[in-house]
Amino acid sequence: MVRIGVIVAFVAGLVVAASGSGNLKALEATAGDWTRYHNERFGFRLEYPANLFRIERTTEAGDGRVFAAREGEARLLVGALSNEDHHSAKSYQDFLARNSYADYKITYRPLGDDWLVLSGEADGKIFYEKAIFSCGGQLISSFAMLYRADKRDVFDPIVARVANSFVPGTKTCRAAPSSASARHQGAEAKANPQRGAAANAKSDRGYSNVADRIARERGTDVILVLRRTSPPYDYKYVRGYASR
């Protein structure tokens, strides 16, 4: 069996997280038993860690599902609704901030033509919600995750991966499927330079070279766990091979 270590280092403005139990849990959660939820009614989908979340309930109308962390420290909600109030992305973002998260201090709110994100913290809890418009603005697909702030080392990287996997519903569109899912992924990165830097770095061979060098020095394969030192505190994992 190949032994893999978790390395501590500073790389290009990202801090590689220490190998404490919280970070090992985060590594396990993001690289472990992930499964896809695909909504039959509207067609939206996302991936989530089935080893951490269980299905709590499915709506009778078939428009969404609620997942709960097995130890009760987080909840993941996903669903879709008809845009009967004719919201734009901006007006819906304001609506959510005013009605769903009035008690939270919102610290992150990027916005695109057909997508939005809100995130904030209050009373020891963190929320993150992402919504995407499809079907020419007729349908709003969204997911939200709420989790304990003292568990952010575990759930920050999870919410980042869930967000990257989230695809809006187009099954009920009357016209050709919306290209929202293709547009919003790059647009969110542009809306926040730090998040964009992390996304661009994903394909950067430089991190792999660093990981390989450390692995060769240690004589064993390693995994670099990189954590951003400012919001949105996202993670990146790079495998290094001693033989490469």
Please provide a written account of the structure.
With 244 residues, the protein is an alpha+beta fold. The protein has a domain at 32-191: Protein Transport Mog1p, Chain A, CATH 3.40.1000.10. It is 29% helix and 34% strand. The strands form 3 sheets. It has a 7-stranded antiparallel sheet with strand order 6-7-8-12-11-10-9, with helices on both faces. Strands 1, 2, 3, 13 and 14 form a 5-stranded mixed sheet that branches. It starts with a strand and ends with a strand. The model is unreliable at 1-24 (pLDDT under 50).
List keywords for this structure.
244 residues, alpha+beta, Protein Transport Mog1p, Chain A, 7-stranded antiparallel sheet, 6 helices, 14 strands, 34% strand, globular, disordered N terminus
Task: Estimate the mean pLDDT confidence.
Answer: 79
Q: Which class of secondary structure composition applies to the elements?
A: alpha+beta
Q: For the terminal residues, how far apart are their CA atoms? A: 18 Å
Q: For the CA atoms, what is the radius of gyration?
A: 19 Å
Corresponding CATH superfamily of the domain at 32-191: Mog1/PsbP, alpha/beta/alpha sandwich
Short description:
With 244 residues, this protein is an alpha+beta fold. It has helices spanning 21-31, 89-99, 152-165, 180-191, 193-201, 205-218; strands at residues 5-7, 10-11, 14-16, 34-38, 45-49, 53-58, 64-69, 74-82, 105-108, 115-122, 125-134, 139-148, 222-228, 235-240.
